[in-house]
Structures are given as C-alpha cells and as structure tokens.
Amino acid sequence: MDFLKTLPTWVWIIPVVIILYFVAISIYLKKNKNRKENYLEKNPNAAQISPMMGIKGVKSMNVTIQKIDGKIHKEVFTTGLKAVYIVNPGTHILEVEASTTRPGVVHKSVTEVFGPVKIEVEVEPKKKYTVGFNTKEKEFTFTEEA
Does residue 56 or residue 67 have the better pLDDT? Predict the structure, then answer.
C-alpha cells in the first residue's frame, strides 16, 4: 500500500483518462445505434449505402460520399468502422471521390485521388448497397450487397 501512495500523479491520470475514453466511446456508439434504429423505424423503406474502404493487393482504397442530391447528407451512421448513408428509395445523384495509397519507391507512399464525380443511382426499398471503385478501369461502381 505504501508503494501506491508514493506513485506520481501522472501514473494515476493515465488510467483514468483511458477509462473515461472508453466510457465516452461506448455512450457515443449506443446513442448512434439508437438514432439509426429510430430513423429506420420512421422510414421502414429506407435503403443503406456504404462507401468501400479496404486493401486490394498493396493498395489501400477509400471511397467517400461527399454529397447526395447536391446536399451534405445528414442521415449518416457508423456500423463498425464503416459509414452508412440511409436514403429513401428512388433515383439519387451521389458525388463520390476515391483515393488509393500504395508504397512508393522514391517516396514513402503514393496517393492518387479520383473525383469528385457525380453518379446517378437507382435505390430500391430496404436494400443495402456499396459504392466502390474499380482501380483497373478507373471508374466507380454501385453494387447491391448480398
């Protein structure tokens, strides 16, 4: 017990900050989940659109949806590490951008940015979609999740 009393203050502050961080994150995630469920209850026919992110070979790729129908979309929720945009069924115009990063020879990494590009998509009720980017053909894709 005497050992614990002699520890400096910063040794106590670090665990407290870590605990507070995890409490705040869990509260945020619970509120986000409740907000998403409430929105889906009010809009039962809504569809979900997720931008693709991940690693293909040695390239990491990140697709972002900047605007939907010319406006910054407010119904954005997180599911795990992905953002999910909830939209009503119908035709929408998405303004999307993709960036790929790969290891370089001269530089530490090389990043390419494609877009922003406007794509018109048809969304059906209660379905889930993914906006991706084909690196070989340099074009955006819009596919339904299985």
Answer: 67
Structure tokens at 7: 């520890």
Phi, then psi, of 108 in degrees rounded to 5: -65, -35
Contact 90, 123 (CB under 8 A): yes
Q: Are 111 and 101 a contacting pair, CB within 8 Å? A: yes
**What pLDDT is stored for residue 58 in this prediction?**
85
Long-range contacts of 99-105 (CB under 8 A, 24+ apart): 99/61, 99/62, 99/64, 100/59, 100/60, 100/61, 100/62, 100/133, 100/135, 101/59, 101/60, 102/58, 102/59, 102/60, 103/58
Q: Mean pLDDT, the chain, as a whole number?
A: 91
Give Cα 96 to chain centroid, integer Å.
13
CB 87 within 8 A of CB 70: no
Q: Which pLDDT band, with edges at 50, 70 and 90, does 127 fall under?
A: very high
Contact 98, 63 (CB under 8 A): yes
